[in-house]
Amino acid sequence: MLRISLLLAVAVIAGAAPRAALAQDQDQAKIKAGAETYATYCSTCHGDDLVNTGPTTFDLRKLKADERPRFENSVTNGKKQMPPWKGVVSPEQIDQLWSYIRANAYEK
Ligand code: HEC
């Protein structure tokens, strides 16, 4: 019985490992795509590699995990000096931007 349980445990672990690795690859791909979109549309104002350039913009690394609705709203509709990005950046790109920003956030 013990042997069967052990075999079962090994089978479960062996099956889970590639899945976890795949999920991680997908995350990495999303973060990378987000970094590219950021460099194209956002870095001129928000700074290279998310490093904020001054007090008039907003340090995107300050965004917290529960601020995604705020992020999507500001990016889609614009805010004060920032133009709206609706129609320029697709919802999929916004999702990738969020992954990129979260991966570099001060507070994970
Ligand atoms: C033309 C310059 C400019 C560009 C380009 C720009 N932003 Fe901004 N962004 C700003 C400024 C200025 C603010 C601060 C607005 C304010 O006064 O609250 C800001 C604020 C923000 C905020 C915070 C808004 C809030 O809720 O307080 C987010 C999120 C943001 N930008 C995301 C982006 C993303 C993503 C991109 C690229 C698609 C981008 N920005 C491109 C100038 C820019």
Task: Describe the structure in your own words.
By secondary structure, the protein is mostly helical. The chain has one domain: Cytochrome c-like domain (Cytochrome Bc1 Complex, Chain D, domain 2, Orthogonal Bundle), CATH 1.10.760. 62% of the residues lie in helices and 0% in strands. It has four helices and no strands. The chain has helices at 2-41, 43-46, 68-77, 91-103. It is elongated and about 70 Å long. The mean pLDDT is 91. It binds heme C. Heme C binds next to helix 2 and helix 3.
Number of strands: 0
What is the domain total for the residues?
1
Q: What is the name of the CATH superfamily?
A: Cytochrome c-like domain
Chain-averaged pLDDT = 91
Gross geometry = elongated
Number of contiguous helices: 4
Unreliable residue runs: none
CATH class: Mainly Alpha
| SSE pattern | HHHH
Q: Cα distance, first to last residue? A: 43 Å
Give the helix/strand class.
Answer: mainly alpha
**Largest β sheet strand count, sense and barrel closure:** none
Strand percentage: under 5%
- Percent of residues in helices comes to 55-70%
Taking Cα atoms only, what radius of gyration do you get, to the nearest Å?
19 Å
In the CATH classification, which architecture applies? Orthogonal Bundle
Q: Do you know the CATH topology?
A: Cytochrome Bc1 Complex, Chain D, domain 2
Ligand list:
heme C
How are the secondary structure elements laid out?
Layout: H1 2-41, H2 43-46, H3 68-77, H4 91-103
Helix pairs in contact: 1-4
